[in-house]
């Protein structure tokens, strides 16, 4: 039976966060995301991340409260969010993240939607892991 649809890309990911202003500042200053809509009655903020969206919901807001307690060291809501970026200059990215007080992993080759390419990982203020992934490496 044929599929009635085909997945094109990630549309959005939703993170439950403890402090909306802190998380908004993080995604704006570290990743360059732009707030496109803030739905205060719901405790929900929509941020543009390239062609996709990152939505943040406050754990004490109407939407976030449905998920129970806030995630912590031993309880995460999401494993990680991977953002495809270009260019991938590991030294420049690492320096940028360190200026924001972050300690990224070393860049390593990982498989993604376009094939094997370099990526690195770091965590946002709520412990959500973010992977920044560059373009696929040319075949050897």
TrEMBL record:
It comes from Stenotrophomonas acidaminiphila. PROSITE patterns: VOC. This is Glyoxyalase/bleomycin resistance protein. SUPFAM superfamilies: Glyoxalase/Bleomycin resistance protein/Dihydroxybiphenyl dioxygenase (SSF54593). It comes from the Bacteria. Residues 9-135 form the VOC domain. It holds the Pfam family Glyoxalase. PANTHER family: GLYOXALASE DOMAIN-CONTAINING PROTEIN 5, GLYOXALASE FAMILY PROTEIN.
